[in-house]
Design a protein that fits this description.
The protein is mostly beta strands. The protein is 5% helix and 51% strand. It contains one helix and eleven strands; from the N terminus they run E-E-E-E-E-E-E-E-E-E-H-E. Strands 2, 3, 4, 7, 8 and 9 form a six-stranded antiparallel beta sheet that branches.
Amino acid sequence: MPNLIRRQEVSAEVDFGVWALQDCDDTQVPVTFPGGFERGPFLSAREGGLDFTSAGHTHTASLTVEVWDADPAVPAGLWEVTAEASVYCSSGKLRARSVAGGPMPGSIELSDGPGTWSVRVVSAGRRQVAELAAREVPEGVERYTAQFWPQL
């Protein structure tokens, strides 16, 4: 049975309808976000990071990160989209990044060293944020939960 190691709540600043999680050690990332970003699916993995396509242009999304010791069950809830990927993280920590704002303060701790991680990301509030972001800058409407576990 999978065990939850840690859970962290952070904000993700979304601009131009995108944002990313990237290895905190930028020297290990060949192309830092937003360089090389291509608008595509909800979740795209690339060397040293994960790119996200949001449903709203400019807003603040809420992000819950869970680190598990094995593949957990999908979080309970009504999710509009679900995707899985894997990412190698040399520092053991990720940082949220936006296009204009760059790296956001703080980091997301996966482990105390390098490793390859499987990740499942679910999201809700997408339809609502698409409507609201056309008129204002909503906060916390689009929600993400990212579940990480070590890839064996």
